[in-house]
Amino acid sequence: MINWENQWSEENGNFKNDTVKKVLTPMKAPEEESVEPLVIFWRAMSPHGDQNPFFSINTKNENFPKVNIFSISLYFRNLYKQSQTGISIYAPYAIRRLEWLNKLILNNS
User: Fold this and answer.
1) pTM summary value
2) What domain range includes position 47?
3) Fewer CB near the last or first residue (10 Å), C or N of the chain?
4) Domains held by the chain: number
5) Is 47 exposed, middle or buried (0-12, 13-18, 19+ CB in 10 A)?
């Protein structure tokens, strides 16, 4: 909940951070398409402290009455809790990149 309180103003019905707030600025949309704002946070984000990674919140914005929020951190936490064997990610170049980083760090120390 602390993360959420740092991002959202209940009083203003809007985000505190201008970088995030811009999602509520209307843009030119394709004809006949419905547009809903979405903010994706990497950190755990929940207004009520629950573990739901996707939720909507009402705004006081004249263009968008609600904004959708997705917390990647909560999504992965839920995946991990549901899994019997952990989370498997296909990242074929990750080991090679970590080896290069290790060489850079060890050679510079």
Assistant:
1) 0.75
2) 4-107
3) C
4) 1
5) middle
